[in-house]
Each structure stands twice: as C-alpha cells, then as structure tokens.
C-alpha cells in the first residue's frame, strides 16, 4: 500500500532512458536476433485472453525461446504483448475479480519466467463494432488493478490507436499517465483497403498532404501525436510507432496511380522489406516493371507496378524521418513493428535490420 500511495502522489512512473521498443514474433529465432538492437522486446502472437477472461500465456517452450534474448543481453527488457478479440477483453474486465485474477496470473507467470512486463494490445475499447460502451472506463480500472498488483516490479504498457478518431473515443488518456510506464502509439494502418473506402493510401504518412482535410487530414502521425498531446498524454510517456512492413493494393487502372487512386482489392505478397528493397531493379516475368516514388508530406515511398500493384512501403529514409520527428517532438522513444519484416539476413545489401537501425540512429543521434 505504501508503494501505491507514493506512486499516486508522483503521478505515475516515467521513462528515463530512450526507448527502442520492438515487437517480435519469434521469427527469426532468438539466437539470430541482435540482442542489443532494441531496449525492449515485446513478444506478440503468443499471449492472449480466453473466452472466460483468463490469462493465457505462451507455452514453456515459447517462453524459453524468448528468454534467449535476455541470456545474450541481460539489460534487454522482455515483455509479453497481450492480444485478444474484443469480446474476450470485455469479458476479462467485466468484474473486479476477473481483472484481479488476470493481474495475479500474469504477475506470477512473469516472475516464474523472468519477464519484465506486460503490453496490452486492445483494438479497440468502445470503438470497435464488437466492443462495449463500458470498455473505456473499465480499461482505466484494469490499468489501476494491474499497477497496484505489479508495483514497480513489472512494466505496464499499452499499444494504442494512431487515428485520432479512435483515440478520442477509446481511451481516458489521463489514466495512461497515472498507471502506465509508456504508451506505444501505433502510427500505422492509417490507410488499409476496404470496400467502403476502395482507394490506395499511405500506411504511415508522417504529415497531411495539401489537399487532405477534416477526418482524412487527421490520418497521419503528426495529427496522431497532436491528439494525444491535446488529450493530456505526457511526452515522456509517448513512444512513437513506426511500421517495418508494407501494405499492398490493386489499382483499378494502372495509369491512375496517385495517392487516393481507385483500388479494386488488396495485395498481400509484398509485406516485408526484403520483398521490395530491390523490386525496381530486378527483372520480372511478363514484362512487369515496378517504379518507386517518394512523397514528401508522408515521408514515405510507394511503389507502382504495371501489373496494377500499388505498395505503400518503408525504407531506411522513411523510418529515419519518422524517428527524427519523434525525437524533435520529445517522445520517450520509438516503437518498431516488427522485427520479422525487416531485412534480418542482409539480403538487401544494407546490412541486417536496416529499417530499425536507421530509425534507431536517427532517434538516438548516433
């Protein structure tokens, strides 16, 4: 109780050292991952919530494989990212007892395996069609319960929305300052293909383009950061998310290939950096040619093929630009999603993990 009172009086925990947080799905194997690449490694896809709201952790073997990173670098922080469907999240926060059981079980598991904290990836309380209106307030109670249970022994973080339209509805941002160590703002997936909005667009545009207004004008990282600031999130709690993956669209007409051009579907065959780093230089079958372009406002490249493929991509220039913006905005750190889609083997000719390293260098200034 003494700790909790001091914690409340201080207004929550605050990050001190620059954060380079990297999501990781055990690919490549942990013994092939640079254990000094990131300060925090967040294991995703292996921790969830059951239908009755119980903590469902990685298997012993999965935990053991993840632990190899800390064996190779004891300073690395290893965290479990909890992902689940909205109904499962809603079930877990439905009663104080379920929340406390989740807190106790997760704390016991982390203690047993030597992990350093929990990252909550709830997409998205109150906002999503299968979420409940009560989720927003219950999330605050969950964070309070977890912090009281974890004390200062375990880290508590959240992965939160990039689009301000979601942020304003889904969260009581003041609770992040009180109970979380830091917040991983997912500044990506601003434009994905849907039949309700069948156009191409940038995955992670840094700033709005000149003709983007209203809600569309908010679909960028600068507006995302501004919305969190307006809602009261401290800059030393804010970790700026940067994607290390591509999204693909199929154009209606190859000659209509500008941002917001009509699309007739999505393309899922070019998701990693190695799949696109040399695509414009390579010879392709059937006379297919790809060309890369750069958009200054988005600080992002995009690739257009005469097979009607339109790719919103990242490269070292773009990840560095976004990390520099995060640094200039006094963010506590940057988050990269995720290690597996960077060039882990150096096949692009830029060394290993060029996207993450470019972002890291820009943010740290070295």
From TrEMBL:
Keywords, sorted A to Z: Glycosidase, Hydrolase, Signal
Q: Which InterPro entries match?
A: Chitinase_II/V-like_cat, GH, Glyco_hydro18_cat, Glyco_hydro_18_chit_AS, Glycosyl_Hydrlase_18
Which GO terms fall under biological process for this protein?
Answer: carbohydrate metabolic process; chitin catabolic process
Q: Does the keyword Cell inner membrane apply?
A: no
Q: Which SUPFAM superfamilies match?
A: (Trans)glycosidases (SSF51445)
Which N-terminal residues, if any, form the signal peptide? 1-15
> Has keyword Signal?
yes
Q: Under the GO molecular function aspect, what terms does this record hold?
A: chitin binding; chitinase activity
Domain spans labelled GH18: 18-366
**Family, per the entry?**
Belongs to the glycosyl hydrolase 18 family.
The entry's protein name is: GH18 domain-containing protein
Q: Which lineage is the organism of this entry classified under, starting from the top rank?
A: Eukaryota, Metazoa, Ecdysozoa, Nematoda, Chromadorea
């Amino acid at each position: 109780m003494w700790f909790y009172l001091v914690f409340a009086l201080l207004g929550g925990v605050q990050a001190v050292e620059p954060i380079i947080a990297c999501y990781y799905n055990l690919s490549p194997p942990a013994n092939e991952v640079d254990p000094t690449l990131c300060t925090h490694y967040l294991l995703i896809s292996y921790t969830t919530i059951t239908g009755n709201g119980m903590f469902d952790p990685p298997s012993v073997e999965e935990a053991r494989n993840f632990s190899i990173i800390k064996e190779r670098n004891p300073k690395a922080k290893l965290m479990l990212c909890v992902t689940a469907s909205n109904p499962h999240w809603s079930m877990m926060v439905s009663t104080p007892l379920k929340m406390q059981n989740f807190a106790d079980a997760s704390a016991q598991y982390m203690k047993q395996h030597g992990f350093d904290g929990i990252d909550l990836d709830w997409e998205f309380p109150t906002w999503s069609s299968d979420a409940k209106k009560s989720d927003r307030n219950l999330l605050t109670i969950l964070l309070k319960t977890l912090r009281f249970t974890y004390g200062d022994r375990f880290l508590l973080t959240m992965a939160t929305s990039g689009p301000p339209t979601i942020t304003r509805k889904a969260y009581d941002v003041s609770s992040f300052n009180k109970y979380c160590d830091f917040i991983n703002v997912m500044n990506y997936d601003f434009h994905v293909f849907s039949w309700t909005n069948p156009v191409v667009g940038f995955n992670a545009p840094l700033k709005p383009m000149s003709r983007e207004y209203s809600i569309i004008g908010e679909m960028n990282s600068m507006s995302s950061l501004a919305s969190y600031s307006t809602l009261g999130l401290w800059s030393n709690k804010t970790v700026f998310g940067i994607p290390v993956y591509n999204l693909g669209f199929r154009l209606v007409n190859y000659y209509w290939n500008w941002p917001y051009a009509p699309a007739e579907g999505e393309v899922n065959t070019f998701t990693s950096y190695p799949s696109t780093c040399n695509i414009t230089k390579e010879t392709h079958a059937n006379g297919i040619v790809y060309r890369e372009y750069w958009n200054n406002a988005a600080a992002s490249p995009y690739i257009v093929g005469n097979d009607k493929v339109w790719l919103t991509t990242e490269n070292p220039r773009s990840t560095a630009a976004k990390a520099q913006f995060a640094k200039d905005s006094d963010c506590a750190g940057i988050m990269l999603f995720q290690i597996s889609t960077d060039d882990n083997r150096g096949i692009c000719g830029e060394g290993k993990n060029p996207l993450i390293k470019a972002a890291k260098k820009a943010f740290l200034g070295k």
